């Protein structure tokens, strides 16, 4: 696999309204985008530090995997996933699979910011939910 950089870190939060002002203070930069990803039952808020983004994820439904993650973390959020930017996401998924890595998504799907994204299973990645993404 050939990630070019850490595209973003995904952080689960209970409330974007509460978390955004904190992260604006911490990072010294304004949230530049808020977007709902209906598919994943989340609302996302983005910050940019250099070429890496911070993606805050707020569940929009109790059935959201982010809601389940928060529940497991004592009702608080935390670091949820790491996302690597790759070139040729389909080929990267194929080579991950060849390397014996379990995939959550065997094909890329549309994520926030119009990126093609796919997740690798944390059971294959030392417990770190890992996302590959590509800007097309
Ligand atoms: Zn992500």
Describe the structure concisely.
Helices cover 22% and strands 36% of the residues.
Tag the structure with descriptive keywords.
single chain; 136 residues; alpha+beta; eight-stranded mixed sheet; 22% helix; globular; binds zinc ion
Describe this structure in words.
This protein has 136 residues and is α+β, with helices and mostly antiparallel strands. Helices cover 22% and strands 36% of the residues. The protein has 3 helices and 8 strands, in the order βαβββαβαβββ. It has helices spanning 16-27, 65-72, 89-98, and strands spanning 5-12, 33-37, 42-49, 52-59, 78-85, 109-110, 116-120, 130-134. Strands 2-3-4-1-5-8-7-6 form an 8-stranded mixed sheet. A hairpin with a 5-residue loop joins strand 6 (109-110) and strand 7. The chain starts with a strand and ends with a strand. Bound molecules: zinc ion.
Write the SSE topology.
Blueprint lengths: L4 E8 L3 H12 L5 E5 L4 E8 L2 E8 L5 H8 L5 E8 L3 H10 L10 E2 L5 E5 L9 E5 L2
Parallel strand pairs: 1-4, 5-8
Antiparallel strand pairs: 1-5, 2-3, 3-4, 6-7, 7-8
The structure holds zinc ion.
The site of zinc ion has 6 residues, from strand 1 and strand 5.
Radius of gyration: 15 Å
| Poorly predicted residue ranges | none
Q: Reading side by side through the largest sheet, how are the strands ordered?
A: 2-3-4-1-5-8-7-6
Beta percentage is 35-45%
Largest sheet: 8 strands, mixed
Helix content: 10-25%
Q: Tell me the structural class.
A: alpha+beta
The total count of helices amounts to 3
- Ligand list: zinc ion
